[in-house]
């Protein structure tokens, strides 16, 4: 690598760390707001506790959500023959996400870092349509974007509705009146209430790390693949021949399918699957590790695996494969085996993001905490309201992570607070001005970040 590339690589990695750091104090305020405003924990203790659990969450969260972020942009966009074009993409993406996150934090608005990141990625993809010799609408993986969009769209409505349900359950089974009253300033609640809120705060922090932390891991992998594709396209610890077995098994099982009932799009996927599986088998015929493959060919192997696995998954989801349920289950297992070659993140990346998210959690949390604790409802949160919102957020984020879907911690918890306030005294219990500002920030996040990242990308492409 040249000196200039090394400098740009360091700058991009620092920006990715900055995004995750800002994400820490921007989003984790949601988790600590309840324990702080109910006097269940001192602020310093709460943010350190939350920061540590965010750190652990990232370490144990896997990389499913991270790969979902990477796959939002097709590979022909992610890797360009001119590496400086990839740098332009990364710089635009990260700067737009950081600018919007810092702006909403400054005004104390609990906006979604997830929406910010997704909007920035989509802005890059859409900007490709304005370039000469563009790859056109293929610059955005719309199938993946649609799945991600649904996960992010549902989260605020789910948080609002489920918090009302949890409040109802509390009222049905917890008859202690103090649980539903506003905290007395300076007075600690009973130990059982504190323990409940400690647990819910910890769960939100842990699952936030597992989900949002993976987004940071995905960002770093995008940087490494875009700038150093020869070294980070493939996992060098995976045996190429074991993956070859997976690929050949997928091809054999797919050969059993009745192609006459496939749609035109499915037939193309089917043909591409066989083409790329044969290409992979030819290239790795006598190789066992990726460093034995020519540098120029490593990204082609990555493309083969992605085309085979994603194509097979789309054919399965289409429902037109004439395979028995047992065969489909076996096919999915082979797909997961093949994916290991391309869906990975080095341990140093995960640790670096864990540290950034954990440290960010411990700094700059006050602005968002004040909005959540004091300005959403016309009265301060009760213990029950704080617990219900955090239970909903923890469960929602945990389920999303299990299904490898990015979800907004901010939307889940903030809407949960709104739902808990409505459950007590109806819509009149909400502060209209604050809710309007929060919703406006939510609505504007995607269009603003799309325009900002797209504009910066076109600017940087012209400069670099």
Structural overview:
This protein has 464 residues and is mostly helical. Helix content is 74%, strand content 0%. It contains 19 helices and no strands. It has helices spanning 3-27, 29-37, 43-60, 64-70, 75-78, 83-106, 113-127, 142-173, 191-227, 229-232, 240-254, 264-283, 295-318, 325-339, 347-361, 366-375, 383-402, 409-425, 432-463. Helix 9 runs parallel beside helix 17. It is globular.
Structure at a glance:
Helices cover 74% and strands 0% of the residues. It is mainly alpha-helical and 464 residues long.
Category by helix and strand content: mainly alpha
Write down how many β-strands occur, each being a DSSP E stretch of 2 or more residues: 0
Order of helices and strands: HHHHHHHHHHHHHHHHHHH
Which stretches of 5+ consecutive residues score pLDDT under 50? none
Strand content: under 5%
Classify the helix fraction into a percent range.
over 70%
Sum up the overall morphology in one term: globular
Tally of separate helices = 19
Please, what is the average pLDDT? 85
The description of the largest β-sheet is: none
- Distance N terminus to C terminus? 17 Å
Gyration radius over CA: 24 Å
């Amino acid at each position: 690598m040249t000196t200039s590339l090394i400098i740009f690589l360091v700058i991009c990695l620092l920006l990715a760390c900055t995004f995750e750091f800002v994400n820490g104090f921007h989003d984790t305020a949601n988790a600590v707001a309840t324990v702080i405003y109910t006097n269940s924990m001192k602020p310093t203790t709460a943010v350190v506790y939350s920061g540590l659990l965010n750190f652990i969450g990232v370490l144990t969260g896997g990389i499913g959500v991270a790969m979902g972020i990477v796959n939002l942009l097709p590979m022909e966009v992610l890797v360009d023959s001119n590496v400086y074009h990839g740098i332009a993409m990364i710089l635009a993406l990260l700067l737009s996400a950081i600018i919007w996150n810092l702006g909403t934090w400054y005004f104390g608005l609990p906006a979604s870092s997830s929406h910010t990141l997704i909007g920035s990625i989509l802005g890059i993809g859409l900007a490709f349509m304005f370039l000469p010799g563009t790859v056109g609408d293929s610059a955005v993986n719309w199938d993946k974007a649609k799945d991600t969009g649904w996960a992010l769209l549902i989260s605020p409505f789910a948080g609002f509705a489920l918090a009302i349900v949890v409040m109802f359950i509390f009222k049905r089974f917890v008859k202690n009146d103090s649980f539903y009253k506003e905290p007395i300033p300076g007075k600690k609640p009973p130990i059982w209430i504190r323990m409940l809120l400690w647990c819910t705060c910890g769960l939100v922090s842990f699952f936030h790390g597992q989900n949002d932390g993976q987004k940071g891991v995905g960002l770093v992998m995008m940087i490494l693949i875009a700038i150093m594709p020869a070294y980070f396209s493939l996992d060098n610890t995976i045996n190429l021949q074991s993956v070859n077995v997976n690929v050949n098994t997928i091809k054999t099982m797919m050969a059993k399918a009745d192609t006459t009932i496939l749609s035109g799009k499915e037939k193309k996927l089917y043909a591409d699957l066989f083409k790329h599986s044969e290409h992979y088998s030819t290239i790795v015929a006598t190789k066992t590790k990726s460093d034995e493959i020519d540098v120029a060919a490593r990204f082609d192997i990555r493309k083969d695996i992605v085309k085979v696995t994603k194509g097979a998954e789309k054919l399965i989801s289409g429902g037109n494969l004439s395979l028995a349920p047992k065969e489909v289950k076996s096919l999915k297992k082979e797909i997961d085996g093949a994916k290991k070659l391309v869906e990975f993140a080095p341990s140093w990346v995960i640790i670096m993001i864990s540290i950034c998210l954990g440290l960010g959690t411990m700094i700059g949390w006050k602005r968002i905490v004040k909005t959540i604790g004091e300005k959403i409802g016309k009265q301060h949160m009760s213990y029950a309201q704080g617990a219900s919102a955090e239970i909903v957020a923890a469960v929602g984020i945990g389920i999303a992570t299990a299904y490898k879907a990015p979800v907004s911690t901010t939307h889940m918890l903030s809407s949960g607070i709104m739902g808990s306030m409505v459950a007590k005294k109806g819509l009149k219990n909400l502060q209209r001005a604050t809710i309007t500002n929060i919703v406006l920030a939510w609505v504007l996040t995607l269009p603003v970040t799309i325009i900002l990242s797209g504009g910066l990308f076109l600017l940087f492409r012209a400069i670099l």
